[in-house]
Amino acid sequence: MAVLPPVRVAAAAAFGRCSSPATAPAGCCRGCPRGGRAVASGTRRGSLACCAASGGGGGGGRPAIAVAGDPPTFVSAPGRRIVAVGDLHGDLYQTRAALMMAGVLSSESDGHVWTGGQTVLVQVGDILDRGEDEIAILSLLSSLNMQAKSQGGAVFQVNGNHETMNVEGDFRYVDPGAFDECIRFVEYLDECGGNWDAAFLNWVNVCERWKEEYPTSPNGDWRPWNFVKKQKGIAARASLFKQGGPLACELARHPVVLSVNDWIFCHGGLLPHHVEYGIERMNREVSVWMKRSSVDSDDELDIPFIATRGYDSVVWSRLYSQGPTEMTRHSWKLSSVVAERTLKSVGAKGMVVGHTPQTRGVNCKCDGKVWCVDVGMSYGVLYSRPEVLEIVNDRPRVLKNRRDSYDEMEVLDYL
Question: Which residues are catalytic?
């Protein structure tokens, strides 16, 4: 295959106003036969409106999944199995392994087929940074969501701190290979004639071929003095992730807090002052901030601080996810009290969070009220064995390879 001309950033910049079908409001399903958008009645739970046909009644005699909020905030999924997956950090290989373990992705190597039926899959954030296949993972989850809806299931994503950091232009934790992926993807988008849906949804199926034909550059190419290489990668990434950029608008389709049936899903942790501020309000403000072009506002205060900044924000809090060696007895008791108070205020039975790698795998804290599902599976973190959380009839269960086990010395090798 002939070498393509240098990256054309303008091809991505042309989509900076969220004008394509792929960046329609998060409450509206792509290809929805009714063109319908989920609406809320204004109450906390509200009356849920079905966003898509989802295979009629959802199949198996179950009612269709109903979504309220824009982006989705409250989800009613009667009788569904729920699977929660933790931080993925750009590792497509480990992502596939986790999804296959969860029973929602075909094991066939030449396709990405949803096998979860009516399962509801929730990924709790931090798809970006530390790995080189970020866009491919976003593409995979979007493709699986479209397939799942046709079977009465669904795939939801929750934005984490690394998603908000990239929209802010904070690229400190970007893997060199991820800059290369941005360059290749913008070139592929140009090859697709600027058709965002075609390029984005198919990227996971073609990224490996592009990687083989345009290999990732050696890390030496990213040394500070290699300005040409660095600026090409940064320009490509900035065009995609800047406020109002096409991937920022994709992220804007997803919430920072999601309620599915009686469970809360977020990246860092939901706290009482977040509930008082308003979950749907936080989701909406973060989404608007991501979709708003930087030329629309120069005001730094437009960043939704309560959700995206500070140690006690939704995407940064570690109150519930710290290990026992990092917490005093007092802080351990406090976290349990706060978790109970928060869950009671939203009428939920449990919370699922990511953000803090758990060296002993998926586990529960705060007297069983909070489940921590970030196991550091990415090669850019701990490269640990994938584990996921399954919730059936409000009963959580950890899914993992039965042969997998850790000892303390093995964990030390990763740190």
Answer: 162
